[in-house]
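Re: export button greyed out
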Amino acid sequence: MWAYLERLWHRLGSPRHFYDLAGWWLPWLAVSSLLLLGVGITWGLLFAPPDYQQGHSFRIIYIHVPAASLALTGYFAMAVAGVVVLVWRMKMAEVVLQSIAVPGAVMCALALFTGALWGKPTWGTYWFWDARITSMLILLFLYLGVMALGSAIASPVLAARATAVLAIVGAVNIPIIKYSVEWWNTLHQPATFKLTEKPAMAPEMYWPLLVCALGFYLFFAFVVVLRVRNAVLEREAGARWVRELAGEGR
Amino acid sequence: MHPVRRTRLLLVLGALALVGVAVGLTTWALRENMNAFYSPADVVDGKAPVDRRIRVGGLVVAGSVQRGGEGLHVSFDLTDGKGTFTVNYDGILPDLFREGQGILATGTLAADGRFTAEEVLAKHDENYMPPEIKEAMEKGGHPGAKAGATP
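Workaround output, generated via the alternate export path:
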């Protein structure tokens, strides 16, 4: 078992083998994410009951919470890739780091945007400078910074090291976002889902949310794998296997 | 692990720890400003500044909402269980403003303890449930019970 995992890890570390393996994953990721998103969003938007206070406007949770959760998870994954870049100098980690930045930034922007749309009818304002919302805005800027830094340096190796440092330093913001609603007084409510407690939400409302969240995660993985494969081809454009692959397509 | 990689790993983790401590100390030093609002206990204890624009947050005391005359004037008591004071407001309240609900008010505290709000925002809690369950829970005598609990 361990030997198999080690072999898999080494294969994933090689751009060529990653390209082949990931090609097998893509259709599975695409079909399962589309299926789960279709079921989850239809269930949440059409069949889940309205909330006793907010009525139908609470349904934005089916987009907002998965997007916000992915924005945090994506950044965390980017920071882990950053550690691998700096310590193990793995080529694939450099590619993964840059490939997460754009979809992560999109999820972060989506969470901020849906939050603003929900904030107007619920709180009475689109924007509020509390610790949760401000730290989420900083996360968006960190994502944009990683994107900008990655494309500002021409050498891929140097660009990867610089963005790795930024990704790791910015990871300090992740626990701040997560616990801001507990450490400080914020307008944003505390988490509805906790690992140790029953969710503060009726089951017929949280089941579609879990389906949506899983669908979002699989879709995110799909986009990242797609981007990684693309970046691998671009980086290895001179390699023989890529030229052979391009020859096949002709 | 290769010694060079171990050194690099320790350097990365050490740098992360230092940045964490720096950010932790900064937010600790700014903790007054990190909070979005003062609690009613702060207002009653005199911790909230007087004659300056501040924000207060708390629960609206049930039965305390009074509307005056033909205007929009409204006054209500705000509490957090440790202190209670009265908020005066001339304006439109958000849809989710209810007795017993959390709100945030921006305004000024006068030296005599009167608070005049310029803006009132509703704060939402983390509980979500369908209206039927809420009704059943109120009938069963659990108005504050958490969603998901059987009434």
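Residues 28-191+210-249 of chain A form one domain. The button fix ships in the next patch.
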